[in-house]
Automatic annotation (TrEMBL):
Bilayer-spanning residue ranges: 27-44, 56-82, 102-135, 147-170, 190-213, 220-243, 255-276, 283-300, 306-327, 348-370, 390-412, 433-452
Enzyme class per UniProt: translocase
Domain NADH:quinone oxidoreductase/Mrp antiporter transmembrane: 113-400
Organism listed in the record: Ophiosteira antarctica
Subcellular location: Mitochondrion membrane
Gene Ontology molecular-function annotations: NADH dehydrogenase (ubiquinone) activity; NADH dehydrogenase activity; ubiquinone binding
Name listed for the protein in its UniProt record: NADH-ubiquinone oxidoreductase chain 4
Name of the gene: nad4
Amino acid sequence: MITLILSLIGVIISIWISPNNKIWETAIFQISIIFLFSCFLYSSTNNINWSHLSSLLIIDNISTPLIVLSCWLIPVTLLASINNLSKTNIVSQRNFISFNLIILLALIITFSAPNLILFFLAFEATLIPTLLLIARWGVQNERIEASYYFVFYTLISSLPLLISILIIYYNDFNINIISLNWNPSNIISPSLTLFCILAFLVKVPIFTFHLWLPKAHVEAPVAGSMILAAILLKMGGYGFIRLYQFFWESLTNNIAPLLIFYCCWGGILTSLICITQTDLKSLIAYSSVSHMSFMIANLATGTEWALSASIIIMIAHGIVSSALFALANIFYERSGSRTLLINRSLKAAIGLLPLFWLLFITANLGLPPFPNAIGEILAFSSILNWSVVSYWPIAIGVVLTSIFSLTIYQLLNSGWSHKWNVMRNNINERENLIITLHALPLIGLIFIPNLITY
């Protein structure tokens, strides 16, 4: 783990000393090497126990897939951003790559920190570089408003978490996640539990805490959207998993019944919002809110199936949502608009895109044999085991998810061509590589699901 962190710091330094015409190649190559190193973390973990890789950073089967996913995503986002940023000045390009690497550094520490204070600092360290990505490299003037939403939602929800961590420390003089699971605190109460999980519910986010997400996604550059969807949203689920065992009794008896009911029906309402959307990126963002709401409802049941399902859903959704934003960016670069009707029937000029859309749309709606389907089957089984009444919100949510997912495919890949959107240039090698790098792990997890199961 220390090797990964030191290597990443070295990559950040090398970005500023590399030749101007080799910045992107240098960054993508070096981060790809770091991704290969991160794959060896699987050899350090076993089924249940933590693996002490250093005195401050440890991993297990929950954090390892998320770290590998983070290291895989950053070079893909840089590939997707080359076309938009290659014409800007050199300093801007170096800053953009550096901010992405700083986000990766914070993510690695977040997913491997056993100390609650270190976890909180790394958890919040992603705020500033993500804010700068949205505000500096966003497309429209509304990016400033989106930045305000992102900052204030995050800060307001994080303050109760910090206060709760300090209360736990001053009472027990212990904020180690592992030892807290074995020796629960005596001051655990429903209010303290709610304060701790609030930051994670906003980060995921669930319905009503989601207003910052569509704004941030729509105004962010393609790299910001891919990082937000694939990794930053999963930090909320990861934090919820880590603290669930600590607050197990309070969550199960007082908060879980309301949270499960609220998240299930919130997922339905978000799916209804998806059906009404005309902006492609906004629709994909609301789709993430719907999936994550059901994932939190599943986690709140507290079963082993729920834990395995949540990890599978987070990893699979990270791959699929990142791919959908990459595909949306391909359309945007050619049509200059994210409106669904304007982008309709671009498939007449670009032959491979319907196949790519079909692959990831079917994965998004949870069609077997994709890992999304495995995670959702386990999640829905866990929720139904908690209460059979939950069958109705689950059934309605599955139907609505299928409707808006297939609507995206139908609108973008069917119909007659129009004069204003006939694009004769096909997708290039870089764009083919971006989509292929999403398809390979998605298909690979069908055959090796043990990589992302607990």
